[in-house]
Amino acid sequence: MPRMSADANHRIRFKLNGRMVEADAEPRMLLTDFLRYNLAMTGTHVGCEHGVCGACTIEIDGVPARACLTLAVQADGADIRTIEGLAPAPGRLSVLQEAFRRHHALQCGFCTAGILLSLECYLRDNPSPDEATLRDYLGGHLCRCTGYVTIIAAALDAAERLRDANKDA
Amino acid sequence: MSKAGDKSWIGRSVERIEDLTLLAGRGRYIDDIGVPPGTLHAAILRSPHAHAEIRAINTEAARRARGVVAIITAAEVAKLSASLVVGVKAPIECWPIAVGRVRHVGEPVAVVVAGDRYLAEDALELIEVDYAPLPAIVDPLAALDPQLPPLHEGLSSNIASDRSFRYGDPQREFAEAARKVSVSIRYPRNSCTPIETYGIVAVYDPAEDAYDVLANFPGPFSLHPVMARALKVPGNRLRLRTPPDSGGSFGIKQGVFPYVVLMGVAARVAGRPVKWVEDRLEHLCASVSATNRVTKLEAAVDADGRVRALSFDQIEDVGAHIRAPEPATLYRMHGNLTGAYDIRHVAVRNRVVLTNKTPTGLNRGFGGPQMYYALERLMQRVAVELKLDPIDVIRCNLVPTNAFPYQTASGALLDSGDYTRALDVALADGGFAELKKRRDAARAQGRIYGIGCTAVVEPSVSNMGYITTVLTAEERRRAGAKNGAQATATVAFDPLGAVSVHTASAPQGQGHRTVLAQIVADAFGLAPNDIRTVSEIDTARDAWSIASGNYSSRFAAAVGGAAHLAAMRLKEKLARTAAAQLNVPPAEIEFAGGRVHARGNPDNSISFARLAATSHWSPGVVADDDQALRETVFWTPPELSPPTEADEVNSSLCHGFIFDFCGVEVDRVTGAVRVDKYVTMHDCGRVLHPGMVAGQITGGFAQGIGAALYEEFAYSPDGAFLAGTFADYLLPTSTEVPVPVILHVETPSPFTPLGAKGVGEGNCMSTPVCLANAVTDALGLDAIDLPMTPAKLAAHIHPAEQAPNRARGLS
Amino acid sequence: MKPARFDYLRAGTLAEAHATLAAEGEDARVLAGGQSLVPMLSMRMARPKVLIDIMHLPQLAKIESDVNTIHIGAGVRQAKLLAWPEIHERQPLLAAALPWVGHAQTRSRGTICGSVAHADPSAEIPLVLLALKGAIHLSSRQKQRRVSAIDFFTGMMSTARNDDELIEAVEAPCRAPGHGYAFREFGRRHGDFAIVACAAVAHADGVRLAIGGVADCPAVRDYPDLTGTALDDALDEFAWELDARDDLHATESFRRNLVRQLGRAAIEEARRCRA
Questions:
Q1: Which of B165, B201, B510, B708 lies 20 to 30 Å from B444 when distance is taken between CA atoms?
Q2: Looking at the partner chain, which of C1, C191, C195 has a beta carbon nearest the beta carbon of B279?
C-alpha cells in the first residue's frame, strides 16, 4: 500500500456486519466519524474521543475495540461488527439485547451499543462468567444512568440463556 | 388491538417501548439526525486562562484557512445579540462568549465555522489571541474579600447577592437551648456528566428574522425567553426543537442554552446552517458544574437531641457568570431547609459569589447534595456530641405522621408521608441490627468499619417562583409574582381510532414513552403498545409553557398526571357518545380490552377504535360539546403559590422521603473505601413503573458514590482546571458501584393526579452524606469533605511521616 | 478533538518503515495499537507528519520463547500475550501485571511494545521489564541494538529510542528456578493508571523491587535479603528518593506510604513464591 497523503481522500474498504463497504477518508479521520458520517451507521456513539468511556466500542477482527482510538485507514481490510449487526432481523433482538430489554439495563441508551458489543465478544469466549469477572470486564465502560446493576443482571441472564441454547443445539 | 388484562398497566414493570429501537442502534440522538444540505460545522476556541484581559484577537490567518466560511468573535455576538438575562438584581451581563476578558478556563473566545469539524479545528490553531493575564479568584471565601477587584465591572465586589431570612424566633431558641452543635462544610464541584455531550443545529432565516434551532436541550423552557431575548427576536421567531432521544442529561444539558444563542449568531453570520457537537474536553471544562458551597450550619439542641433551631450560613460559588437559572441551586431547597425534621425556627444567610470557574447550573439533586450534606452531617454531630444514637436523633426530630400536609418553617408544604414508619421498615427489613453486629465483629478484628445513616426529603416539581426568593419582597412586587408549574399533555385520536400522546418533556432515558402509554392505556382500556407517544418538542407547534421540560423530577408527578387528565377528559366525552349508542347512562359505560361496553353487559359494546374515530367521520352523531379529537391539558397545582411577604416559599410540589443507612470499611493500607452494605428506603408516592423507579434509584446511587468518593472538578489555586479528561474526572464504573438494597413504602401525594412523586434525584442528595457519616464513624473523625479520596483518608490512618534524613540516619 | 493532518503509511516491509523513519525523523511516529497515540493525535498533543502502521508486518506479531527468554514482537497485542497459554509458566510477573494494563477493551488493541514506547511513568509493562532486567530491541535502517530496560526509560514519557529507530521487540527473561515474583498496584479505580505500582523479584541473594507511578519513570533497587526494620528503612529511603509529588489523585506523602506498604507486601509475596 503506498503512502497516503495527508490532504487527499483515500478509498477505505472493510467488511461491516457481514457486507463489504467502502467510502473515502483522509488519513486522519477517526473510525467513529467514518462509520457515523461516511457510512451513516449512527448506532456507534461518541462519548469522550479519548478511549475512556467505551460508548464507541465495536468489534474489529473478533475483539472489542474503541472506534475512537482507531483511524479509518487502519480499518481497511478489517472485519467489523457494530450495533447495527447484532439483531438477527429487523424488529427482532439477539439474546443479549432481549436480556437488556427485560432487565431494563438501559435508560438513555447512549452507552448501550458499546456495552453490547463488548459483551457479545466476551460471552462468546467466556460462556459462564461470574458476577465479579463481568464487573471487572465491564469496568471498561461508563454508564451514567443505570448504576450498572441491571446491566450485570442482564449479562448474567443472557449468558445462561445462551448456554441453554447451546446445550439444546 | 391487544387485550388489556384486568390489572392496571400503571404499577407494572412493562418492557420499555423505547428499547427495541435503542438496543438496535436506531436511536435518534442529535448527532444521528440528518442536517439540511450545506450545513457547516463549528469549533470553539476557548480560554486557556482563568482570568485575563483580551487585548486583541487576530483571525486573519484563520479566515484564509481551507474550508473556513466564517469566524465569530465577541464583536459579532455583541452586534447581533444581547446579553443573557441575569437572575439577580445587579448590573452585570452574561454573554455566551468572552467579551473583553475571559473569566474561566474554557470560556469561548471565538467560533470557527467551516466545512467540517476537522477543518474548523485546523483553523482554531491559526487564531492569535493576545491575553494579559489577571489574578484569579478560586476560593469562594476569598471572593468575599471586598478589597479584591470585582470580576464584573457592574459590581462593587464579587458578592452578587446577599440575603438573610428568619423564620420563627431562632435567636431565642439558640439563647435557650441546652447545646449548640455546628458543622463547617466545603462542598466540592462535580457534575453528573451525561455520556452524550451538547449538540446543536442552528438555522437562521433572514427573510423572517427567525431562528430554527435543534438542540438536545431538556428545559426548563423558562430559558426559551432568555434565548429569544438574547437573539433579539420575539419568542415566536425562535423555534426550538429537540431530538427524539437524548443521551442523558441529569440537568447538565440545560447548559446548552448559551450555545443556542452563540450558534444562532454563527448561522446568521455564516448565512448557512451551523452544527456544533461539543467534545468531551469542552464538556468537562466549560459546560455546567454543580455549585461548590461553603456552609456553616449550627443547631440549637435540647439534651435529648431534639433540634429547636437551625442557622445556615451558605456561600454559593456560581463561577464566572450568573447564568440563568442561577442562583437557583441555592434556593431550590429553600422551602425544605429543615429536611425531614419538625424544626420551627430557622435563620439563613445566603450569599452568592463569583469566582474564576465554570458557570454553574442544573445538576441532578440541584442544591440537595450541598444542603443535605451540611444538614445530615450536623444530625450525626448532634448524636456524637450528645452521645446519642444517630437513629434516635433522626427519629425524635422527624415530622410526625399525623402532621401531613405539613408546612415547614420556610414555607414548603410537605404533601404526604409517614417518615417514622419508613424508618422502622427500613431498619427492620434492611437488617440494621445485623449491620451493627457486622461492624462490631469487624472492629474486633482491628478493621476500620463504620455505619452511617441519613434522612432526606426529596423535593420534586419545582415552583417556577422559588427562584424569586433571591429577591426582596419589594423587588418581587415590582417584578410581578411568579409561581406555578404548568405541565401540558395532548392526547389525540386519528381517523382509525388510534391514540397518540404528546407532552412537552424531553426524555433523556426516563422511559417517558412507556409510562405515558401505560397511563393512557389504563384510561381507555387499551394496551401500552396501542398508544403512540411522540417525545420530541417543537416550540412552534406544541403546547408548552415556561415550566416545560424534563427537570426537577417532574415527569411522573406533573407530566404523567397531565396526560392522565387529558385522557380522562376524552374518555368522558367518548363515554357520553357511547352511552347514546348503547342506550345506557354514561356512568355505566366501561372501557376494557379494546372495547367500550355497558356495565354488566359486555355484549352491548362497540370497539374503542370505532368510537374514537367518530368525531372524524360522523361529527353529526356526537353531541355538541363532545367532539373528541384532541385534548390538550394545562395543569398547574394551586399549592405552588408565590413566595410570601415573609419569604416563605413552597419551592416544590411533592416531597418524597428517603432513609438510607450503610456500612463501609476503610482499607488500613490504602485508605480506600469499600461500601459493604447500602440500604435505601424510598417513599415516592405511587410507583408508576417499579423497574424504572429502581433504575432511577440505582443510577442516582451510583452518581452519589461518584460524588462521595471519586469525582471533583478540581482547580489549582491559580484557576487552572485539573479535571479536563475522563482520566482525571473519575466516574465510578461497574467495579466501584455495589448493589444497594432498595425498599419502599407508599404514601400517595394528594396533590398530583396519579399520586406519584419524583424519585430521580434523591440518592444524589442522600448517598454522599450517608457515606460520609459512615466514614467519619469508621475513622472517628469530626469532619470530612468530599470527595473522600484514599489519600485524604489515609492521612488520618497512617502515622505522620518522619523526616527523610532521620530515616536515613537509622538505616 | 480531531487530529491534525498526517500521511499514513501501512508498512509492507520493515525496510519501508525504517526508510520512512530515516527520512522523516521525529516527524514520523510508529502506529501500533494506537491506544495511547490516537488520543494524543486527537488532542493535537502529537503532531506527526506521517504515521507508520506496523501492524501488518507478520514478523513483528510473534511471541517467541526459549528456556531463557521471551521475545515479544512490536505487533503483539496485550490481550494476545495475556491469552498466551505459556505466559504464567514462562513469566509469572508479566502474567500478574497484564490484567492491570487498561481494560480488556483496550488490551485487545494495545501492544506491549507500544506501552514501552509511550513510557508513561505509571505504566505497568515498563515497570515489569525494569524489574525483570528486560531489554528493548531497536532497529533502524543502519543498525540494530539492544538496550536494557534500565537504560531505556530516561524520564517522563522519554526513552533512549532515536528518532530513526523503531522498537522491534522487547525481551524478558523467563521465570528462573528459585526466583519468586509479585506484583502490587493501587489506583483510584480498577484499570486506572497506577498511583503506585510495585514489581518484586526475589532471588537467592536478595530481592529486586521496581516502583512505578511515583517518579518520572519507573525506578528499581536491589536489596540483599533484608527483614524487619532494615527492610522498613530501605523502603523508606527508596520512597523518599523517588521525589513524589502531589497531584489530583494523591499526595506525595500518600504515595510514599504506599511505596513502603505495597513494596513490602510485594517483596514478602515474592519471597514466599521463591520458597
A1: B708
A2: C1
Q: What are phi and psi of C22, to 5 degrees?
A: -65, -40
Residue window 280-309, chain B: list those with CB within 8 Å of chain A: 280
Q: Which three cell numbers stand for residue A65?
A: 475495540
**Pairing mode, if any, of strands B448-462 and B652-666?**
antiparallel
Count how many domains chain A has.
2
Q: Is C27 on the interface with A (CB under 8 A)?
A: no
For chain C, which domains are there? 7-53 (3.30.43.10), 59-173 (3.30.465.10), 181-274 (3.30.390.50)
* CA distances to B277, C104, C261 from B362, in Å: 20, 35, 43
CB within 8 Å: A26 and C5: yes
What is the helix (H) or strand (E) element at residue B451, kind and residue range? strand B448-462
B406 and B460 in a single domain? The answer is: yes
Interface residues of B toward C, Cβ cutoff 8 Å, are 117-118, 121-122, 125, 279-281, 669-672, 710, 712, 714, 722-723, 727-728, 730, 732-733, 735-736, 789-791, 794-795, 798, 801-802, 804, 807-808, 810-811
Distance from CA of B187 to the nearest CA of A (A): 21
B570 has a pLDDT exceeding 50: yes
| Structural domain of A129 | 95-168
According to the model, what pLDDT value does residue B3 have?
A: 44
Q: Which of B12, B18, B41, B195 to mutate to test the interface with A (most CBs of A within 10 A)?
A: B195
Question: Taking residues B793-809, what's their average pLDDT?
Answer: 77
Q: Which of B276, B789, B802, B806 to mutate to test the interface with C (most CBs of C within 10 A)?
A: B789
Residue B41 lies in a domain: yes
Burial B734-757 (b: 16+ CB within 10 A, else e): bbbbbbbbbbbbbbbbebbbbbbb
pLDDT in tens, chain A (169 residues): 789 999 999 999 999 999 999 999 999 999 999 999 999 999 999 999 999 999 999 999 999 999 999 999 999 999 999 999 999 998 899 999 999 999 999 999 999 999 999 999 999 999 999 999 999 999 999 999 999 999 999 999 999 999 999 887 6
Query: Which residues in chain C have Cβ-Cβ distances shorter than 8 Å to A69?
Result: 34-35, 38-39, 106, 109
Question: Would you say residue B605 has pLDDT above 80?
Answer: yes
For residue C275, name the pLDDT band (cuts at 50, 70, 90).
Answer: low
Query: Given CB atoms, is C8 within the 8 Å cutoff of chain A?
Result: yes
Pair B708, B768: CB distance under 8 Å: yes
Q: Which residues of B447-476 are buried (b: 16+ CB within 10 A; e: fewer)?
A: ebbbbbbbbbbbbbbbbbbbbbbbbeeeeb
Nearest CB partner across the interface for B280, out of A48, A134, A144: A48
What's the confidence (pLDDT) of residue A168? 77
Is B141 a domain residue? no
Q: Give the pLDDT of residue B805.
A: 59
Residues A35 and A74 in one domain: yes
- What distance in Å separates residue C85's CA from the closest CA in chain A? 15
Which residues on chain A are in Cβ contact (under 8 Å) with B32?
36, 42
Find, in chain B, the residue whose alpha carbon is nearest to that of A90: B24
Q: Examine the domain organization and report whether B301 and B436 are in the same domain.
A: yes
Residues B420 and B410: their CA atoms lie apart, in Å, by 22
pLDDT digits (tens, 9 = 90+) for B152-204: 998 999 999 999 999 999 999 999 999 999 999 999 999 999 999 999 999 99
**Please, which residues have CB within 8 angstroms of residue B165's CB and are 6 or more apart in sequence?**
B346, B347, B348, B349, B350, B410, B647
Same domain (yes/no): B629, B652: no
Q: Are residues A159 and A104 in the same domain?
A: yes
pLDDT > 70 in chain B, percent? 98
In angstroms, the CA B400 to CA C163 distance is: 75
Give the range of the structural domain holding residue B749, as residue numbers without chain letter.
292-466+641-797
